[in-house]
């Protein structure tokens, strides 16, 4: 029976890079490995075909011979380079599945320190203008007594005799090899016979660091500021992690922020709403004059351009949106009540009053129509 094209077997293009071939093989091997197919002979043969294709296409000389002469170029019975059916499955699986079983022989023993997060609460004013703040962060830093080695000053760690410094040991079951963390050194690759008294062999100690954080103008809740290398110190000489400062803006008594715009409610008197005029409204930069049009209704929104927040990303500046709320007068004197009653009478009734209170007439006309429709 003729053999299938190796590229077709792995589902890759003829010009595929080696990393793409390994990725395709890993996916197929996970699916068709005998440990997963429970003795299905057809699937076992498919796995052998996949394995054969992988061995040829990841060997530079065999792949060149296969590309030029096809299967004949790698068939040992025809004088080619051949695969011979004796692949070292332990090496292949240690290479392809290293990330699943702890990293294999390519895993670095040095480990990067963990990233940290710090929640920073700020006032709206500080967030809008930007500010330098000092924060205190509890973290792990390299031990200065042993320079992070974990060994007592004057001594050095020795190479682990079990894993020979690899931090991993290999267990074989037939042709299948599994990488496991070395039980002697717990993956460090080193043995510390005389631990440092300050860090007790860990190479790191707890410390609260004081850091200065430059918060740029315009930050908002949810924004993060990254301080590279200010996280936990790495293990065994590994790099430190990063510190992420998470910004949260506290509620403001006057303004509500939405993106780069600010919103506020401005109460005005009944007479000011009716007659119009100028009022003072607050902004983050101080008070400004706002012109109220005559006959302004409650809920109307006035826009003050450029009085919002400058974007931390684009540099564009938002607006301040002032929502007018007409305040009904309270605690009226007898004379004031008389004046309001005179005003009300002066507007008349029925159709005459409608020109002064059009919304009221529209509402009650709608109510009348609603009930008329119900009775018809």
Automatic annotation (TrEMBL):
Binding sites annotated in the UniProt record for Zn(2+) 2: 160, 163, 182, 185
Residues the entry annotates as binding Zn(2+) 1: 143, 146, 196, 199
InterPro entries in the cross-refs: DnaJ, DnaJ_C, DnaJ_domain, DnaJ_domain_CS, HSP40/DnaJ_pept-bd, HSP_DnaJ_Cys-rich_dom, HSP_DnaJ_Cys-rich_dom_sf, J_dom_sf
A molecular function GO annotation: ATP binding
Coiled-coil portions: none
Subcellular localization: Cytoplasm
Recorded family membership: Belongs to the DnaJ family.
Descriptive protein name: Chaperone protein DnaJ
